Amino acid sequence: MVKVSIMGSTGTIGKNVAFKLARADTVDEIVLFARPESVEKARGESFDMYDALAAEDIDCKLTPTSDYIDLKDSAIVLITAGIHREEGMNRRDLAIPNAEIVQEYASQIAIHAPDSIILVATNPVDVMTTVALKASGFKKSKVIGVGNHLDSLRLKAYFSKQININSSEVHTRVIGEHGDHMVPLLSSTTIGGIPLKYFVKSVDMEVPRLVKRLKKAGNTIISKKGATEYGPAYAISNLISTVITDSHKILTVSSYLDGEIGEVYGVSLGVPVVLSKNGVAMIVPIHMNDFELHEFREAADVVRKTTDEVLMHLDYK
Length: 317
Known about the structure:
Elements: E1 3-7, H1 12-24, E2 29-33, H2 39-54, E3 61-65, E4 76-79, H3 95-112, E5 117-120, H4 125-136, E6 143-145, H5 149-163, E7 170-171, E8 174-176, E9 182-184, E10 190-191, E11 194-195, H6 196-199, H7 207-215, H8 217-225, H9 230-244, E12 249-258, E13 265-276, E14 279-283, H10 290-313
Parallel strand pairs: 1-2, 1-4, 2-3, 4-5, 5-6
Antiparallel strand pairs: 7-10, 8-9, 10-11, 12-13, 13-14
Helix pairs in contact: 1-2, 1-9, 3-4, 4-10, 5-7
């Protein structure tokens, strides 16, 4: 029996993740956790999903609840609750109010689902990953942030569309902050096995424009439709499926660093990791050129500053 709990299940991303996981038919039960005042909405979402799942003969149990005890025996608990970013807002603008929510939820997960893996989607996700780690007391391998997984998928799609090539031929990765200080690893990007720096010599590709577009992607979507929805939901579902199927894929998530990459310590950042049913099986060492290393360390400084302010507000030493 595989059980996944979603805290913030009535939000745009939470309910989309729930439905995507249910349709994948790899999870036996999904707990739709919501605040007491939102439980009826969660119940309504479950009724609507059941109607859709019946059309595909899928039997996945959906449990709407506001009781922490229902988190028991979860393999993964997703925290996606929080105040959502509006147009013009920086992800760091959400730090204090969302940290208070993540702190509460992570501490309750530690009590009621002590063997689970915590996956954090609440923004600013790198900061919130450290908050969840501190509040839960879990090993760092068991607390994961969504990090740059979506950013990496976006960049992959941009390259694919730019040169009209199947996306499976594009191997690229974004690390660092999930925000303005993300770091595309262009030096190790390959297309059809050919390093990007050689590929662009024969193809019209405006790499700087694509990177600029990448960094504004979230705000662009928010300005046009009010919220990001399908991209984050599918990226999160992909991470959850990778863990519960023990796939050992290398994906870029936010993980607390102790010097494994770039000699960066004491902060959660997006880095490539091997994901397994036990969480982060290993942080994958990577090569960066001098510019990328400088940008990565700068991202660490920016995220660490916000994290320290948040932890001080939450009274963590």
